[in-house]
Amino acid sequence: MDRNVETVNPQTEIMALYQQWLAAVRKKDVNAIVACYTDDVLAFDAIMTLQFKGKQAYRDHWQQCMDFCPAGDKEMIFELHQLNVQAHGDTAYSHALTRCGFKEGEKIDASWMRMSSGLRRENGQWKIAHEHFSAPVEMPSGKAMFYLTPDEAPGVRPVPQGMSTVTPHLVCKDARAAMDFYRRAFGAMDMPQGTLELDGAFLHGELMIGDSVVMIAEENEQCGSVSPSTLKNTTVSLHLYFPDVDQAFQKAVKAGAKVMLEPTEMFWGDRFAVVEDPEGHRWSLATHVRDLTPEQVNQEAREFMAQMAQMAK
Q1: Sign of dihedral through CA atoms 40, 53, 64, 136?
Q2: pLDDT tens, position by position, 218-240
Q3: pLDDT digits (tens, 9 = 90+) for 29-66
Q4: CATH at residue 176
Q5: Which element (helix H / strand E) includes 90?
Q6: Of all helices (H) and strands (E), which one includes residue 267?
Q7: How many domains does one find in the chain?
Q8: Does residue 184 share a domain with residue 129?
């Protein structure tokens, strides 16, 4: 019995099924994993797809998950904590917290999720008929809060809530006007902390565009912070995905963006456009419209470059 597993009026058969399931996952034995499910299993996993209908669909998903699992000296972590099982007749339900990740030496990189399941007894054997994994999401970014733990308060996070590992920080000659433009052009929303001003001087601003934060700074040449409009050039382009790039492009142009490239079908599968904002920052706008294999991308890239070379003559 896994020492992390706790039960309330458990059924011995169901607990044995979960031990079989845990062992199969740790061994990355996909056939043994799916043997724990009914043929008509309906699964809601926390990643990849909204739902999986039937054992074969869920098997394919488990295989993808196993293919992503670490190899080499990394030890897989897959555990159930606070497992609670209730059974009546030939049906049962369970809920638990799961920890999934890996251990390498003393370093542990693992995330927590919630699990709930419905089970059915068929021909004297318990099988999982429904399974649901989920994680809370933070607002307003919608990012999964995999950093939460069952026994501790979150505390001070090294990466603040709502932020990503990489965050654009734009220097603008007129930060307030730039933020207003981003609201009108890209549908940016103000973050809860909004802007920081001191004695009327703009110090810092934060906007949410889609699921990403963009930081805004006012130009200050004494601090070495210079805007593209002052430099009269930029080496950076920010890339935005939209459901409809043509509509997004027209909205940005209407708000005052300068057209650099109108929406065009590109060889990597995106419909793609480029605009420049009034501060001189470049923004590429895109909608993904085709899924291509690496071989197809390479072939279309060659054709594209050949066309560009011909136009340059």
Answers
A1: negative
A2: 998 888 889 998 989 998 999 99
A3: 999 999 999 999 999 988 888 899 999 999 999 998 88
A4: 3.10.180.10
A5: none
A6: none
A7: 2
A8: no
